[in-house]
Design goal:
It contains no helices and ten strands.
Length: 153
């Protein structure tokens, strides 16, 4: 969804699968549109990338740049019971917010959507291990919410 924006490939073991969706050669450049499955220390990810190679001396191709089009955590569902969430009045008592309680001993990322200002808006909240906190939505009066995913960040 929103939270993850970067993944560092440290070894070949981090790359589970690569599928070339498309390739286009223009002069001394080739651009590949790639879908990849990646394996991190905690989570598995899917990524869509554009990788551009440039022809150098002696017919060698080197990566010119990599463009990240999408990176997302593959949901496991194993932490779904760790987070309890409910609508609660904010400190001023004039608006409602979402209150999260993490009952597990690992920090968890909660992603979902909240209904306020007559529309659904995405949110993400990092809840520390065995901790509680309210969602930070400014002065929005939340009417409803849906949790889409709970995973380790």
């Amino acid at each position: 969804m929103l939270y993850r924006s970067k993944f560092e490939v440290k070894s070949i073991e981090n790359v589970q699968d690569v599928a070339i969706q498309e390739s286009k050669k223009t002069g001394d450049e080739i651009r590949y549109v790639i879908h990849a499955e990646l394996n991190g220390e905690v989570n598995k990810y899917v990524a869509d990338l554009n990788i551009t190679y440039k022809l150098g001396n002696y017919d060698d191709w080197t990566i010119q740049y990599i463009e990240n089009k999408m990176l997302d955590i593959v949901p496991t569902g194993k932490y779904n019971n760790c987070i309890k969430a409910n609508l609660t009045e904010s400190g001023w008592g004039i608006i409602q917010t979402v209150h999260f309680t993490n009952n597990c001993d690992v920090a968890l990322l909660v992603e979902g959507v909240a209904f306020y200002n007559n529309d659904w808006h995405p949110f993400h909240a990092l809840i520390k291990a065995n901790d509680s906190r309210d969602a930070s939505t400014g002065f929005a009066d939340i009417k409803d919410f849906q949790i889409k995913r709970i995973e380790q960040p």
